[in-house]
Amino acid sequence: MTDIQIKINNKTYPTATTPSIANLKLSLNSNEFICLVGPSGCGKTTLLNIIAGLDNDYDGEILVGQQHTHPKIGYIFQNPRLLPWRTVRENIELVLGEHQSTDVIDALLEVMQLTQAQHIYPERLSLGMSRRVSIIRAFAVDPEVLLMDEPFVSLDAPTARQVRALLLKLWQQRPHTVLFVTHDLREAIVLADRLIFLSASPMQVVSEIIVSIARSERGNELAIESFRQQLLQNHPEIKQLL
Known about the structure:
CATH topology: Rossmann fold
CATH architecture: 3-Layer(aba) Sandwich
Helix content: 25-40%
Radius of gyration: 18 Å
CATH superfamily: P-loop containing nucleotide triphosphate hydrolases
Shape: globular
Distance between the termini: 32 Å
């Protein structure tokens, strides 16, 4: 996996008078889990769409290694976006095209605890299960970068904890570079190797902070809360971004 450099000098929508993103630089390290935290409307989804190649109307560049190109992307949206006329397994197979790997799908279904649900249709899935299917679908393409746009925002707290734990288990077994958008600082601390705090529009990087809690301690709520309090105390500039 090659490191990725992102530079966005300017992103302005045609009907806007001010930029949505300006002078933004990000470095994504191989197999790093990065959480982006910033206020609503600051341009986080716009940034993900640019990285994914869905929005090319901007001034800047994306380098994969030394090449000017967009990386191979797996994208997990807020809405699972499953095709209702296809089963769980068929929704996953769809992204693999003709070169389907039964073993890979079986392994992903097992890790995400969906083996028994693979032949049912999305209407019979809970929202948490649908989110797990969307995670499998994104991992199945073996992306260079996995983009996640607040994928757990509408889940109740117990379900969100369960899906986060399964996501981390899958990521540790199959490491990928992850860019995860969230408004929840505790969630970001649980998941991330590095936190990137973003300003309101025009979006810029305010702070980058390494999460120093050992992965084995991320299930300890006291450790997470202690790190959060210390973070807010040592970096008062991020309070207004939450």
